[in-house]
Amino acid sequence: MAAKAVKTINKRALAKHKKRFMRFFPDGFDDQRYIDWEHSYKWTSHKLWRELLNEAQYRSLLRAHEFEEIAARALRVEQKTVPPFLFSFEKMALRDALRTERGARTFAEALFILLHGKGSLSSRFVQWIFTFAELPRKQSRVLSWPNLTFFPFIAQPKKHIILKPSAMNVAAAELGFDFEYHSKPSFKTYEDLLLLAELVREGIADLQPRNNFDVQTFLYVIGSAEYERLEEEALD
User: Is the pTM of the predicted complex or chain greater than 0.85?
Assistant: First the structure.
C-alpha cells in the first residue's frame, strides 16, 4: 500500500502573504486596526456565548428540556455577531429550522455533544452533519458550511474554525495546500481545514496567534475579495 502523502503549505507563499498581512496590520494581531476590524466582534460574540451557553448552563438547560431556549440563545449570539458570518439566506434557513420544537431539540442535543461530548472529533462532527441534514427546512437549505461551523467556531475558537468556502479555497490555493474541499459537508473536508489552520499557525508562530479567530482572519485576508479591493485602493 502506498504511503499517504503528507500535506504541506508553501513556505515562500506563506512568507509573501505574511508580509502582505503586515502591510494591513503592522503590529500583527495586536494592531489596533486589526482589533477594531477583525478581532473585537468575534471576541464579543465568544464572550456572549460563554455568558449564555457555557458548559454548565448548557447542561442545565438540556436536563430541563429547555431546547427552544438553547436554540434561542444560540440564535441571539449569531444575531449579535456584526459583521455577520452568515448570508441572509443562511440566517433565514437556520432561524426557520430552530424555531420548530423538533428542530430546536435536535440542534441543542447534537451541538452539546460536538462541543462537550466524549469520543473522537470525527465521530462527533459526522453526527453534527447528520443532525443538520435532518433539521426542518422551509425554503433555503439549512445545511451549509457556514451554518455548520459558525457555532463551534464562536464557542471554541481554540478547537474549531469556520469554513467560508470561497475565501478558504482561494487561501488554500495561494498557499499551495491541497485542500480536499467538497460543497457537501464531510469530516474529511473539515479535517483538511483544521490541518491547514494548524500549518498556518505554526508558520506564523512569531506573530503569536491567540486562537483560530486570528488564524481564520489571516486566511481570510489571503482569500477574500474585500482585502484585494483594499489593497488596490491603497495602490491607486
Answer: yes
| 3-class SS letters over the chain | CCCCCCCCCCHHHHHHHHHHHHHHCCCHHHCHHHHHHHHHHHHHHHHHHHHHHCHHHHHHHHHCCCHHHHHHHHHHHHHHCCCCCCCHHHHHHHHHHHCCHHHHHHHHHHHHHHHHCCCCHHHHHHHHHHHHHHCCCCCCCCCCHHHHHHHHHHHCCCCCCCCCHHHHHHHHHHCCCCCCCCCCCCHHHHHHHHHHHHHHHHHCHHHCCCCHHHHHHHHHHHHCHHHHHHHHHHHC
Residues 78/95, Cβ–Cβ less than 8 Å: no
Query: According to the model, what pLDDT value does residue 234 have?
Result: 65
- Residues 6 or more apart whose CB falls under 8 angstroms from that of 99 comprise 71
Q: What is the pLDDT of residues 205-214, one digit of tens each?
A: 999 999 999 9
Residue 215 CA to residue 40 CA, distance in Å, equals 14
Tens digits of residue pLDDT in 93-102: 999 999 999 9
Is 90 exceeded by the pLDDT of residue 231?
A: no
Is residue 41 within 8 Å of residue 157, measured between CB atoms?
no
Instruction: Indicate if the pLDDT at residue 17 is higher than 70.
Output: yes
Please state, in angstroms and as integers, the Cα–Cα distance from residue 227 to each residue in 20, 47, 115, 217, 224, following that order: 10, 27, 32, 11, 6
Q: Return left, alpha or beta for 10; rule: phi > 0 is left, psi -120 to 50 is alpha, else beta.
A: beta
